[in-house]
Amino acid sequence: MALIGKWWWRFKTKTTSLWVKVISSIYGSSGGLLLDDSFRIDSYKSVWNEILKTGNNFNALGLPFRSFFVKDLGDGEATSFWKDVWIGNEVLKDKFKRLSRFDNDINASVKDRVIWDGAKGAGNWSWAREPFERAKDELEGLTKLISGAVLHPEKKDAWRWALGTNGLFTTKALTDMINSGLLTSSDSNCETLRNKLVPKKVEVFVWRARKLRLPVLVELDKRGIDLHSVRCPLCDEDIETVNNSLILCKHVFAVWSKVFDWWGRGGIPFINVGDLFLDTGRANSYRRKIIWQAVGWVCSYLIWKNRNQKVLTNKSWNVPITLNEIQVKSFEWIAKRCKSQVIDWHNWIYNPQIFI
């Protein structure tokens, strides 16, 4: 989502590029990125159409994606008065809904609608009819708001990314915002779990797995994707569900058996992902519980990663190599984040029970 969202930034800032001119000729000067251009999303089937739909995906997470693009005013000529975020933190069309309907030109620029005398801004209105009732009240609020506008006639308008410290778009900042939106999404049947000893990407994976939102073959088939088979790509003995891909497949179960042997534990106590991610072993303190839970989360994350490599690149499934990767990655992530206890490599490999 973050990488696709970056194309919004590129469209807004690479105005002289040929591809931007092509998109503008099809979708209009705004490229279909403005809220009132949403009708175009269903009118065209193209790669750019999918990029536009990303805005709706951000809305679904409660992230005001469009408001992250802010105009730094110069002369106001390239900034839409009603449709761009240029004063305050939202577009004036949304803040003054009734009043915007009275304007003769909803696409008017800031330069068209604001008179700058060097000290403060004043309205330069062009009404289709004179505002009345509530619209008149909105006009008073708008007039007061734009009196604080500052224009710089000597320079051109420019875009600024609100999440960036230097005003430039960064995929990392947007990714962090997306992860925050994912992990705080509420679901009455699936409480969000957190573990401070694993990276955010592992937490997101756990959230997706518990909600059965991993792209296993059965789920892809439900969505109408034409597949040769929905049987497990590792064992070919059962259909591939989330539970099968992370626990029940005999090749995956063999990995879990090795992990439990490594930690000196008995039989595997779970058969579904709900119990898997809640398992805290026999630990008797919060610190020890989250260490074992983190090991389980890392193990399931790497099992899924290796499953994908098998499906996408036909890489052979190797239990010892997978176990070794789990040992290395779990140590790397957990030891780095565990502030209350020193975790050394030798004990982690040969005597990990002391940590739980």
Characterise the protein shown here.
The chain is mainly alpha-helical and 356 residues long. It folds into 3 domains: 1-65 and 166-185, no CATH class; 74-156, no CATH class; 188-355, no CATH class. It has 16 helices and 4 strands. It has helices at residues 2-13, 18-27, 47-60, 92-95, 97-100, 110-113, 134-146, 171-183, 200-210, 217-222, 242-248, 250-262, 273-278, 286-313, 319-337, 345-350; strands at residues 69-72, 114-116, 121-123, 158-161. The strands form 2 sheets. A two-stranded antiparallel sheet has the order 1-4. A two-stranded antiparallel ribbon has the order 2-3. The longest helix is centred in the C-terminal third of the chain and has 28 residues, at 286-313. It is elongated, with a radius of gyration of 27 Å. The protein starts with a helix and ends in a 6-residue tail after the last helix. The relative contact order is 0.07.
Question: Secondary-structure blueprint of this entry?
Answer:
Layout (H helix, E strand, L loop, with lengths): L1 H12 L4 H10 L19 H14 L8 E4 L19 H4 L1 H4 L9 H4 E3 L4 E3 L10 H13 L11 E4 L9 H13 L16 H11 L6 H6 L19 H7 L1 H13 L10 H6 L7 H28 L5 H19 L7 H6 L6
Antiparallel strand pairs: 1-4, 2-3
